[in-house]
Amino acid sequence: MTGHPGVRAPWRTRLGRILWGTVLVALYLFLLAPILVVLVESFDNATYLRFPPEGFTFDAYRQVFGNAAFRTGIQVSAVTAAATALLALVAGVPAALALTRLRFRGRAAVEAAFLSPLLVPHIVLGLALLLILAPIPLTDTYPGLIVAHLGVTVPYVVRTVSAALASADPSAEEAARTLGASGFTAFRRITLPVIRPGLFSGGVIAFLLSFDETVISLFVSGQNTVPLPVAILQYVEYRSDPSVASLSVLLVLLSVVVVVAVERGIGLRRSLRSG
To answer: C-alpha 22: how far from its chain's center?
Structure first.
């Protein structure tokens, strides 16, 4: 007896929950397994990568900070990412304001142009940027790296700021201008506090994307400016030891800490949510 036909049997409900939970656990394990393997490998005491590890030590983490190429790469990536994030905000905020507040012919085409770098493979962008920057010349320079990274970071800033602007009330700015405030004053006093979460989220995303960018950096970097991802590739080309795994764990932790801090502080999901 199963009772009323409209009432699902309790055992079927429990079985469905168990199966759904099993699928979720398997999915998370599939996604996190590579990171877990790298985490375990980062504590190995061998001089080469192997799995499973046969020892436990923190020597690989000490080697990361003792490696001159890694230290230089961290410096280059940090400077490039900070400058890229700042310039992406400078370029992305006016673009988001124009796309959100103005109605003009070709608006859809302009919006598509800003988002098009997200649809193009990075290897294609890297080759195109190399052909453009090499004759100037801007390859193997900080300005070249920054310009190259702006192409893949500005679209994210435009997106986050546009989502934040969607929640702002344009009539409040109009009222401020009616009362005598200039356009800049109305933006600074009325609009800026509302879109600040989108600005911060866009800047953080731009920083992380620039810091971790590998393919484009590989095309436009050289001997004098070697970002960290390129330094890692050059390192593993000739050797492979647990210090690479340790550095990878530190980079993953950096990204997780930054994203969690942004989410707890201003709500990253609310900033990315479209209006």
So the answer is: 30
Say which amino acid occupies 120.
V
Domain span at residue 148 reads 60-272
Residue type, 274: S
Percent of the chain with pLDDT over 90: 11
Q: Domain count of the chain?
A: 1
Does residue 4 lie in a domain region? no
Question: What distance in Å separates the CA atoms of residue 77 and residue 79, rounded to the nearest whole number?
Answer: 6
The predicted-structure confidence for 107-126, as pLDDT tens digits, reads as follows 778 877 877 777 888 888 88
| DSSP annotation string for 151-215 | HHHHHHHHHHHHHHHHTS-HHHHHHHHHTT--HHHHIIIIIHHHHHHHHHHHHHHHHHHHHH--H
> Which CATH number is 65's domain given?
1.10.3720.10
Establish if 234 belongs to a structural domain: yes
Question: Which of 159, 123, 99, 133 lies closest to 220 in space, CA to CA?
Answer: 133
Q: Where are the alpha helices (DSSP H) in the chain?
A: 10-41, 59-66, 68-101, 107-115, 122-133, 142-166, 170-178, 183-186, 192-212, 215-220, 228-238, 242-265, 268-272
Say if residues 226 and 69 touch (Cβ distance below 8 Å): yes
Q: What is the pLDDT of residues 176-235, one digit of tens each?
A: 677 776 667 777 777 777 778 788 888 888 998 999 888 999 999 888 889 989 988 888
* Planar angle of CA 23, 28, 29, nearest 5 degrees: 95
Residue found under tokens 């929640």: 167
> Residue 179 and residue 177: Cα distance in Å, rounded?
5
Structural tokens at position 121: 């493979």
Residue 135 belongs to some domain of the structure? yes
Q: Measure the CA–CA gap between 199 and 205, rounded to whole angstroms.
A: 10
